[in-house]
Amino acid sequence: MKIKIIGIGSYIPNLEVKNTDFDKHIFLNEDGTPFGYPNEVVIKKFKGITGIQNRRYAEPEYTASDLAFFAAEKAIANAGIDAETLDYIIFAHNFGDVKTGTHQTDILPSLATRVKNKLGIKNPKCVAYDILFGCPGWIEGVLQANAFIKSGMAKRVMVIGAETLSRVVDDHDRDSMIYSDGAGVSILEASTDEAGLLSYESATYANDEANYLYFGKSYNPDLDPDIKYIKMYGRKIYEFALSNVPCAMKSCLDKSGIGIDEVKKILIHQANEKMDEAIIERFYKLYDKTAPKDIMPMSIHDLGNSSVATVPTLYDLILQGKIENQEINKGDVIIFASVGAGMNINAFVYRH
Q1: 117 in Cβ contact with 79 (< 8 Å)
Q2: Under a CB-based contact definition with an 8 Å cutoff, are residues 231 and 216 in contact?
């Protein structure tokens, strides 16, 4: 038995934030001292490394569960199903619902329960719960759905990845320019044809790597040190990803029995353009190959890094024909992969 994605939907917020909108920010070093060069230089270097030109922030009146609900409605319509037939709703996020102008996360009730409520699902046997797995959360949710369906515990599962990272960033930290908001939702069930999930890998590295992403105080010493923001050791994450993600992808592909030349697309977490390109290059080198042109679609240039939402959103946009020069056809083999806080890595090979 295999499971397949029968429905996909995403929500991209309407509030567009360009790199130039950071012109007036007061960026500081970790010790609170000012940079030795102007914001124009900071932004230019940022664009060169990450590839990000624009990002989307959630509208002020919406939270992460709202974005997820909007995407869930689209996924249900795309699948052509009755929401009452869902056995599980798995919601991957990192910070819960954070309202505009506040710093407190709200995860009571769970965001999955909130989406179930907004969808009007009456069936009490539709189980709703959240997972915290960093940026790879949506992929991990798919792997849990795979386990539930194969074990007979479920027939149909909704997996959500949604986040509003713009509300947990330190405006004085250059890394704040990376993050964005969004939601991607998939619906999965058992496959009756050749399509579906073929193999997977998942791992947590929790020694020195555990704190590469963390919640920390603002770089501005005048701000309340008890208010925390998302922080990261970017160079360490970059090196960790390059050392571990290609190997996990290779292990996953080898377990599937699919040859590297059969892979049509690699949908990787949209974290950093240079890092993603380096991961793909190293992955192909493991097979003594050169990465084919257009093997790795990208959405980060205009959407930024929306964490758990990047991979399902990218998949949805390609299927809608909204990523230039990219398409996925029936029977195509795709590798989905991600890396993030934990540090967690996962991947799965999928036949569309």
Answers
A1: no
A2: yes
Dihedral (Cα; 25, 30, 35, 38), 10-degree rounding = -30
Q: Are 276 and 340 in contact, with CB atoms under 8 Å apart?
A: no
Q: What is the pTM of this model?
A: 0.95
Residue range 146-200, pLDDT digits in tens: 999 999 999 999 999 999 999 999 999 999 999 999 999 999 999 888 899 999 9
Contacts of 317 (CB under 8 A, 6+ apart): 10, 299, 323
CB atoms within 10 A of CB 281: 14
Q: Are 29 and 69 in contact (CB under 8 A)?
A: no
Q: Are 84 and 49 in contact (CB under 8 A)?
A: no
pLDDT in tens, 107-143: 999 999 999 999 999 999 999 999 999 999 999 999 9
User: Is omega for the bond preceding 109 within 30 degrees of 0, making it cis?
Assistant: yes
- SS3 of 242, please? helix
Provide the phi-psi class of 243: left if phi over 0, else alpha when psi is between -120 and 50, else beta.
alpha
Which residues, 6 or more positions from 99, have their beta carbon under 8 angstroms from its beta carbon? 63, 106, 167
